[in-house]
Amino acid sequence: MPETPLRCAMLALNSVGYRSLALGYLRAYAESDRKLAGRVAFQTLDLEVGLDPWWVAWRVLGLEPDVLGISVTCWNARAVYDVCRLVGAVRPECAIVLGGPEVGPIAAEVLAGHPEVHAVVRGEGEVTFAELLRAICAGGKAWRVDGLCVRKGQEIVSTPDRGLIEDLDSIPSPHLAGLIEALDGGAYLETYRGCPHRCAYCFEGKGYGRIRSFSDARIAAEIDALAGAPHVGSFSFIDPVFNLTPERLRTLCGMLVPHAAAGLRLHTIEVDIERIDDESAGLLRDAGVASVETGPQTVGKAALETCHRPFHADRFARGVEALRGAGISCECDLIVGIPGDDAYDFLAGLRLCLSLDPGVVQSSTLHVLPGTELWERAAELGLEFDREPPHEVIATSGVTFRDLRRAEVLASAVQRAYRARL
Amino acid sequence: MIDFIDVAVGTGGGVACERCHGSAMPAEYMATSELLGLITRAVADSRTVPGPNLALTGPEPFGHPDLPSLVAAAVDAGVSRLRIDTDASALRSQDNAAGVLAAGVRHFRFSLLGGSAGLHDVLAGAPGALDATLTGLDVLRGEVRAQGVTSCLSALVPICRHNLHDLPAIAAVAVEAGANAVLLRVDDPGCDLAAAVPWMTAACDTGVVNGVWAEIEGVPFCLAPDHALHVSDVLRARSGAKAPACRDCRLDELCGGGPVDASGDLLAVLAPPARAGDLAGAVSRARGSVGHDA
Ligand code: SF4
Ligand code: SF4
Description:
The structure holds two protein chains of two kinds. Chain A is α/β, with parallel strands linked by helices. Chain A contains 14 helices and 18 strands.
């Protein structure tokens, strides 16, 4: 008699209008694993973060899963933990597996604090999750799978680290496999992993290390698929720096130009603005880029140093000007509460951004994310933050709790006044 | 932080404390042709970034017979942000609210003199005034939603000895009316600033805990060291030796008089909060010699 397939539910709680690329990768990789073929039945629940966790649990439990894999970020973690608690109470036999940058770096802590969670994937998840499913299909012994933090009886065991995936093309494309619903404006592509920078508040550069790219052929195929999907007139890229090198920018833009000519528009592409000149702005325009997102995050000298971020006001301004000249809106981002800044550094940043009239000025509060340099150096830097997700800064040695809250409210008023225009 | 060029559409009228200023002179509106020229030139000459931003002020702009032409002239001249300073009573008409938004006005500023109809109406000298303002704003918010535009609503609170104890309540009314920001402006030369500041800072706190920004104008930062971020001269970083609120102060040796240096950079004097605290102490010790206390 054929064995009953393991029922694996995969859950993401996304921002409104988005679908989880992470779940798409995990599922695409696991589905391509020949050893899992016919042995696991996958079901993806791409839901929105604002939903009541009780109803999310309702949806999950309706699938009667044997395994529940959840992608966790700092901003959905609280809701995820609620769902885990409810699912664990109703269906304790379901193995709950978490992954993502919010939980990977503090895997043991997460397991200790959430008894209903069975395992946490550390680092890149595709291979680890597939191997874990193999282990479960084979009757257990998850602690033999690298890259996990897992329960073994009463113990919490960390298995050896897993190396980064060398050949990203070994992960089948979830877009090409039809595993992600292509939503207009809500779909995004990733052309490489890693980041050339090491910003102290970010996990990307530190956690995923050196840059590994998907092949040009794979990227082109994904662009063609998304651009050709019905009702998709715009999408985005999640690459930390789209203009990684001039050659790469030319190559990517070259792939996009025919679609742009047919009306495709790209939104909130992240760029290193200090390397944008008239030529690269022109390339972006011809590739259909309507808006980009960039720093400076802060203009305070001490904070820039603490975060290892270069900032040259003149080059930054030239980049914004080049983009404006090309008709591309630029979102300038600022972070409130970076150690080293005082409230007046934040005001200076706000003023600088406004003085460039970039299109959008956006500020957010510092999140001290697990695994980042700021998380590790918080005490030394005098950084008080909430250990509970989303880990917002409470106070710093330079800015009081009350002034941080004031800066947040001020920034949102200024942003609105800026946005309210013809 | 986003500056507007004010163009008054006439003289007289307006919302101000009747006890401080007496009954308002009747509104007299400027001729349309003259205003059109003023508006076009103001927009063309503006070097403000981000901008150009223009505010139609003075007596109630909705009372001007050619308001649509004035708005259209500003839009044609290339204004980026257009504000109308209004008591909002005209916005009770849905046609007015819809029309003004469709024409391109995105910023609205309304005045509040009291946190209750009792005080506001008495100080404004106009029974039913607060109710008319709040109803108008309500209609406006509905139209903003219907048109799906981003608008910005701010409350102007002229502070005088007659309403300073009501400032936190006024801030609460502004919050409820949907204001994104509140500007608390000292409008009474005889107002004892040292006594008024705690009420102003309480109003700022009322705003902040409700997610609405409040700014204080006409108070030197040294009087509100724990609320320095709310002080206009800190926020706006006007260059110049002394902020307007400091004009008669004799503590120059202690304080440059403003939080900006000549380059407009913030801010050698204020930056260490402890220093601002020292100044507050010095100011209260030297109260007799501080002109703004008069
Ligand atoms: S913040 Fe951006 S540039 Fe900095 S490390 Fe993270 S992804 Fe890279
Ligand atoms: S001490 Fe005097 S000059 Fe300095 S901020 Fe206060 S009033 Fe202004």
